[in-house]
């Protein structure tokens, strides 16, 4: 059913606001219930959304987001079932496997047990990185730091709720932790020991960057 097709009013909740719909009445006695059709202004929004999905700027932007997410993952491969849960956050089209992935063969591919496939939504399939793009390894927080060079510290923005207090011991630990070198989320962190301040720095960098990849939920600071 297309967005412009009328449908039975009985299929909608009676609590839905009529501002977006037009009711189509039929003559009494012919056995057809009233139908509802979206108003022209709503249909225009649908057209505009489809135009955005088809634009080169959008497709390049969303491909870069997906590409960077794969770069951040430790093995540069993510199961499609996980990517599916992030579709809305990343701004991916509903049919990204069929419509977007094949358009960027130098970025990523869908694989199944090491064998490349053209498309599919099987839970056993993975989205895999094809190449490495150095220009995309620069994180959002690195871009904001003027004169930043590898090995320098970067202070993560911290915001506390009203009335929250930090004792002196904790504040000193946080201050010392913020002075540690920044570790890029794209960096292989296998050499970092578990439960160390350095591994925590890397984990926070990963979370900060992932949130920046989400449409409408970018980290400020």
Automatic annotation (TrEMBL):
InterPro entries, per the entry: PORR_domain (IPR021099), PORR_fam (IPR045040)
Pfam families: PORR
Residue span, PORR domain: 21-218
One Gene Ontology term of the molecular function aspect: RNA binding
Name this protein carries in UniProt: PORR domain-containing protein
